[in-house]
Amino acid sequence: MRGKYLRQIKHIIDEGDKVIDRTGVGTLSLFGLHSTYSLRNGVIPLLTTKRVYWKGVVEELLWFIKGDTDAKRLSAKGVKIWDANGSREFLDSQGFKDRPEGDLGPIYGFQWRHFGAEYHGTDADYKGQGVDQLADVIEQIKNNPNSRRIILNAWNVKDLHQMALPPCHTLAQFAVRNGELSCQLYQRSGDMVID
């Protein structure tokens, strides 16, 4: 994992284009970088070139799975990654002046659990509203594993203008072949850093 990651960073440094991004800081950008990781034999592809807050990764994923969109609830568990995007200052700068602090809008978890539902805030009851894509993915993996339609999509064009930040990992497609589960993830943007 470490060697592959470092080779990707070198490739970005050698071949990437200097791009001014929305933050004004700028990036080295390389479009369409591919990477493959095996999870066989209990291996989790974690970086060893920098410290990874494993508990935070798990808590954020569980937060998505619940369909939660309130950054303050995640922050209360010690995971601060969404704090800046849920801050009063940031929300106001994005035109969300009436939205409570911490309300990120219909981001990942909402799209996974209530795709197509009308968003009414972090504490609204969305039971039975929209499409529960995650439940559908699990059902298909169990009962229709040969399907080529096992897809989880967070990129909902109708809701992008309501999101504090549009999704980076936008689409995941799953496949079951020979009793093994595979996933292909498309990410519109991903940071590659070294500490």
Automatic annotation (TrEMBL):
Keyword Transferase belongs to the record: yes
Gene Ontology MF terms: thymidylate synthase activity
EC number assigned by the record: 2.1.1.45
Record pathway: Pyrimidine metabolism; dTTP biosynthesis
GO biological process: dTMP biosynthetic process; dTTP biosynthetic process; methylation
Domain Thymidylate synthase/dCMP hydroxymethylase residue range list: 4-194
Keyword Transferase among record annotations: yes
Pfam families: Thymidylat_synt
Class in the EC hierarchy, top level: transferase
Keywords: Methyltransferase, Nucleotide biosynthesis, Transferase
GO cellular component: cytosol; mitochondrion
NCBIfam families in the cross-refs: thym_sym (TIGR03284)
Stated family: Belongs to the thymidylate synthase family.
Name the UniProt record assigns to this protein: Thymidylate synthase
